[in-house]
Amino acid sequence: MKPFATLTAAELATLAELTRAHPVFRVYLADARAATASGATNRSARLGADGAGAALGIAFDGMEVRTLIGRLSPAEEATIADLPRPGELHVDGAVASRIARGGNAIGERIRRRVTATRELKYYALAQRGRCAPDARCVPLGSAHLPMVTAFFAAHYPDTIFSPWMLDRPFFGIVEQGQLVACGGVVAAAEGISNVGNFLTAPSARGRGLCRAVAASLAHRLFDQGTSEITLGTTEDNPAACRAYEAIGFRCFDRRVQLDLS
Description:
Elements (H helix, E strand, L loop, with lengths): L1 E2 L5 H11 L3 H15 L5 E5 L5 E8 L2 E8 L3 H8 L5 E5 L1 H9 L3 H9 E12 L11 E3 L5 H11 L14 E6 L2 E12 L2 E9 L8 H15 L4 E7 L3 H10 L2 E11 L1
Parallel strand pairs: 4-5, 10-11
Antiparallel strand pairs: 1-2, 2-3, 3-4, 5-12, 6-11, 6-12, 7-8, 8-9, 9-10
Helix pairs in contact: 4-5, 7-8
């Protein structure tokens, strides 16, 4: 993987072509370019030797996520998938099957590191959803970092979160001084906002708070000129899938998420 700042104009053009048809991948690329131009150093990428495939990477606090796109050689897949730290691989079914089989030394090491295999669903919303904004949902920013960090540490220690996420639209519901639900923008560019981290404190589940936060955030983003909102979730979280679908999100793609130790 190469630091994003070292990519050539030709490499960036190839990445743009490979991601052009997929709104999630397209916003990942555009957001990485913008973040890198602003000084971020946590984005990376790698192109396959024949230009028919690539990987995009983003490092969070203590973990990394890599998304494999297009066609890569088995050797390239194995090298890219061998994360230097715990994290997630987002791949198609064929790549997931090859990783599950192992094979060479690198492949066997990756196979042993896989702790979970989940079906990943990508959703999109191109217009205001059916649910109205909820007055309980309030924007959170850097001043709320201690509260948000405590929420993740207490309830979702393995979920991706980094302080820079609060520099983007991030909503929450606070009850009695405690954050009980949240969600926000993970990446944004070209009129597309990719959102995530819609989480509810275990004691507050079953009250529709995730749906309230997602709907309120969507309304705010459309107010700000967003033309499309995307998100990813896993099939093993049916409550979240139902909440997004109730708002109006529609699943447009499915991949596989491999969690690596």
